[in-house]
Amino acid sequence: MAMITQQNVQLKQVSRGNYLMRNVLKYNMVFNEGSKGDAAYILTEGKIEISGTVEGRKKVFAILKPISIFGEMALFLEDGVRTATAIALEDSKVIVVTRDDLDEFMRKSPKVIASIITVLVGRLKSTTRKAMKVPSVGLGVVRILDLFSACGKLELKYDPTIKTLAETFVTTPDRIERYVRELADQDLLAVGRDVNDTRIIRIRERDMLAAVMQQQE
Question: Which part of the chain is the Cyclic nucleotide-binding domain (predicted)?
Answer without folding.
Answer: 28-106
